[in-house]
């Protein structure tokens, strides 16, 4: 007798009640999915993630109080969530795609997509891959590189980076949290934070997104 898997617990964050109702009906009709909560603005999203801890969070970008991107930034900075976050939006700019992925979003789906495409995107994300708009993305480094073609010039900041700092840069591009970087490199989280502080100072940026784009634009991905 085969073991029955637990249903995937999904939360929906969107400020339009009719859209939430339709999305709930669609997902509840899909085998293996269950809806565990809803939020109508960005502030409610933060409380929903803390209290319910869904397996998947469907997050709209345009919401009151806190935008979806601001909520994602708050969730990412907490370092405590384990939800797979899928952005569900009417439209999104290239820079927002890059930032959302660097903040930990695992998928981006446009609202005008066919219902079955959303289901496919969810299964792709749950299986451990990324989904961006209409395609599965297995290798995020290559995808980010396509969005931001590399520069050929090398700078003094690049030459000052140590091998360990380059390893951490590669992990940042891959979207790893400080905890995940620490586990991968067998160092403490405090050591990761110390390295990041030094990298920020050397490179002259203050955000992980800017750091990731610097790494891509200067060919600093480990193994290249």
Give an overview of the whole structure.
There is one protein chain. This protein has 224 residues and is of the alpha/beta class. The chain is built from eleven helices and seven strands. The chain has helices at 17-28, 42-52, 68-78, 94-102, 115-126, 140-147, 156-160, 163-173, 178-185, 189-203, 208-217; strands at residues 8-13, 33-39, 56-59, 84-89, 107-110, 130-132, 135-137. It has a seven-stranded mixed beta sheet with strand order 2-1-3-4-5-6-7, with helices on both faces. Helix 3 links the parallel strand 3 and strand 4 (84-89). Helix 2 runs parallel beside helix 3 (68-78), helix 8 (163-173) crosses helix 11 and helix 9 packs across helix 10 (189-203).
Average of the residue pLDDT scores: 81
Classify the secondary structure makeup into a structural class: alpha/beta
CATH topology of the largest domain: Rossmann fold
Radius of gyration: 18 Å
Query: What are the low-pLDDT stretches, counting only 5+ consecutive residues below 50?
Result: none
Strand content: 5-15%
The CATH superfamily of the largest domain is Response regulator
Estimate the global geometry from the Cα principal axes: elongated
Q: Helicity range of the residues?
A: 40-55%
């Amino acid at each position: 007798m085969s073991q029955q898997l637990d249903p995937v617990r999904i939360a929906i964050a969107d400020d339009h009640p009719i859209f939430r109702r339709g999305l709930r009906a669609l997902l509840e009709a899909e085998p293996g999915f269950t809806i565990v909560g809803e939020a109508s603005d960005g502030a409610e999203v933060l409380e929903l993630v803390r209290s319910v801890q869904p397996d998947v969070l469907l997050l709209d970008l345009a919401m009151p109080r806190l935008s979806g991107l601001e909520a994602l930034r708050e969730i990412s900075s907490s370092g405590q969530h384990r939800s797979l976050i899928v952005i569900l939006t009417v439209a999104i700019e290239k820079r927002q795609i890059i930032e959302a992925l660097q903040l930990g979003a695992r998928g981006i789906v446009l609202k005008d997509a066919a219902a079955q495409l959303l289901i496919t995107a969810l299964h792709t994300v749950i299986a451990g891959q990324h989904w961006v708009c209409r395609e599965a993305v297995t290798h995020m480094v290559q995808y980010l590189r396509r969005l931001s073609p590399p520069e050929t010039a090398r700078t003094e900041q690049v030459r000052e980076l140590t091998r360990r700092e380059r390893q951490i840069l590669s992990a940042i591009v891959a979207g790893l949290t400080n905890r995940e970087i620490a586990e991968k490199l067998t160092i403490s989280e405090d050591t990761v934070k110390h390295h990041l502080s030094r990298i920020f100072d050397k490179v002259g940026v203050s955000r992980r997104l800017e750091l990731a784009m610097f790494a891509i634009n200067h060919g600093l991905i480990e193994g290249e």
